[in-house]
Design goal:
Helix content is 37%, strand content 21%. It has 11 helices and 15 strands.
Length: 331
């Protein structure tokens, strides 16, 4: 194996590797993740992953190392077997996908889920089936959403697919199709959006920045508002909190409204912003009975649609009743 290939394998995020195996952190911080050791049963977490250096250490054993060392321990493989296994999931174009970020549907096989996605084309026009998904399933206002979206054509194992693309700061894309697929064209990063058309250097620093976990929540926010004048930032994953903290801090933006998911990961991300010194308004209290902002938005839109239909049917009945009375009077 070439030295650069081995180096690429070592850059494969340990947090993502563990997530693919269904192992989730007990705590996430800006530069590390803390786990109950996957190497044995334990009550108190003693297994730490340094997410900046991509190294792990098991404090109880006093041992640690790279993802190669961890894979050898967890899967009982030899060095060559470990390199082969990790190489199968480590694409040579830098594209990564996690278990949560890539859930294959009927159009994409499970085999494709474990291979690299190669970018083929980027188009400003979404095909009808993706537009219909956004409007019908997600209740997104396409007129407001279109400027932020692209159609991404990508290839996996010689087969081509299309997905909704949402660009990030590093030129990568978050992907979503009209099924259950979620993924990324690397590199992964945050997406800052200054909706008042100002540049980031002239941003009004007295205004809070609206922070969203995913782009579907951001599009829901746009759809819910007549006009959005707030500055916005999409994390594209709670694992990007540290990047968001650095980005906002570098621009002296210290007040945020957090529209994150109602789950442990979302709550932990809010706490990370608080610990970093930000003034945080946790907006999830306004949709506390829902998983996220989009679920709240779609439920509200459908309730409004039902109410409108009931009123329409009631109006028709009144009109028919009045018409019958008028005909009776004429007779």
């Amino acid at each position: 194996m070439k030295e650069e290939d081995l180096s690429l394998i070592k850059r494969y995020p340990i947090v993502e590797y563990l997530e693919r195996k269904g192992i989730k952190p007990v705590r996430r911080a800006l530069a590390y993740a803390l786990y109950r050791s996957p190497l044995r049963e334990e009550t108190h977490p003693s297994f730490k992953v340094d997410t900046e250096r991509n190294l792990w250490i098991d404090y109880a054993e006093g041992r640690g190392g790279s993802i190669i060392d961890l894979c050898m321990r967890l899967e009982g493989c030899t060095l060559l077997e470990t390199i082969y296994r990790l190489g199968q999931n480590t694409p040579n174009d830098g594209t990564y996908s996690s278990h949560n970020d890539f859930a294959p549907n009927n159009t994409q096989s499970a085999m494709a889920a474990n291979k690299a996605r190669r970018l083929i084309d980027v188009s400003d026009t979404l095909p009808p089936h993706l537009q219909e998904y956004l409007t019908r399933e997600r209740c997104i206002d396409m007129e407001k959403a279109t400027p932020f979206l692209t159609c991404i054509t990508y290839e996996v194992r010689g087969r081509r697919y299309q997905a909704i693309g949402f660009a990030n700061l590093s030129g990568g894309f978050e992907l979503r199709d009209n099924g259950s697929f979620k993924g990324t064209i690397a590199p992964k990063n945050i997406t800052p959006i200054f909706t008042d058309k100002q540049t980031e250097h002239t941003t009004d620093k007295t205004q809070p920045v609206c922070v969203f976990e995913g782009f579907m929540d951001f599009l829901s926010f746009l759809s819910m508002k007549e006009k959005v004048i707030s500055h916005c930032l999409v994390l594209n994953s709670v694992s990007n909190v540290a990047r968001a903290v650095r980005y906002l801090s570098d621009r002296n933006l210290t007040h945020i409204c957090a529209f994150l998911d109602n789950d442990d990961a979302g709550r932990m991300a809010v706490q990370e912003f608080v610990k970093a010194g930000f003034k945080v308004e946790d907006m999830s209290i306004h949709y506390k009975d829902f998983k996220d902002l989009n679920e709240f938005h779609t439920c509200r839109v459908r309730e409004q649609q039902k109410l409108k239909k009931r009123r329409s049917r009631h109006g028709c009945r009144l009109q028919n009743k009045t018409g019958n009375q008028n005909r009776s009077n004429i007779k």
